[in-house]
Amino acid sequence: MNSRLVTMLVLALSLQGISGTAWAGAERASLPTVVTSTTQAVHPASPFTQAILALPAPGEESIRSKLKACLLTGDLSCVLTQWMALTGTSKLPDWLLQFQNAFAAANRQAGKCVEVAKAIHRGLSSLGQHPSFVRFTVQGDGQLIGFDEIANGKLVRTHQVSDNGLHFAVKLQGRIIDAYTGLAGLPEEEYLKRLVPYPGSKLITEAVEHL
User: Fold this and answer.
1) Any residues with CB less than 8 A from the CB of 119 and at least 6 apart, and which?
2) Strand 145-151 vs strand 195-197: parallel, antiparallel, or unpaired?
3) Which residues contact 2 (CB under 8 A, 6 or more apart)?
4) Fewest CB atoms within 10 A around its CB: which of 8, 82, 122, 162?
5) Is residue 116 within 8 Å of residue 102, measured between CB atoms?
6) pLDDT at residue 48, rounded to an integer
7) Where are the domains of the chain?
8) What torsion, rounded to 10 degrees, do the Cα atoms 139, 140, 146, 150 define?
């Protein structure tokens, strides 16, 4: 084999090697990158979001379900506890503090109903419920409205709810809620039995959108 033929063979083999390497590189470049972990690329969610997205442990209800159950049973302490568990904080926002204070004994007096109804409505709405306002007015000469407090089937006392023939409360799923009923509220029919107008006067119930 002469030297020229050898040189040509070596050159051909070299070019083939280069071409193969370039093709292999092109194939590798065209393949999608396999992502094995996205931990560093994902921003951490807020405690509130984490609580919502977290799956409940086997056999347990989610915190949100427990919170709803607490609302429906009128357990205010339970509501606050579950809200803190859901959000991961022990600091209550203003709307939740006002919601809590709406049921204080100090608010069971005439002249407080508008403020109380607004706080209850705002709190229930913020907790995912759909409350509405209810207005009670008196037709007749007497403008006093009382509310009978009953325990163990017996009348404990009658609170003076209004001295101007006007009272406001909140309605949620057929129950009336105000400072006198507590968060549990009362079925509307039972509430109307306990809300007593001045003798000879008539009580009028109306749904209102805003206060």
Assistant:
1) 95, 98, 99, 101, 102
2) antiparallel
3) none
4) 8
5) yes
6) 39
7) 92-208
8) -80
Report pLDDT digits (tens) over 9-66: 444 444 444 344 433 333 333 333 333 333 333 334 434 334 434 444 443 357 888 8
**CA dist., res. 164 & res. 170, Å (int):** 19
Indicate if the alpha-carbon torsion angle 56, 59, 60, 61 is positive or negative.
positive
Q: Which two tokens stand for residue 4?
A: 């020229």
Name beta bridge partners: 134.
169, 207
Q: Percentage of the chain with pLDDT > 70?
A: 71
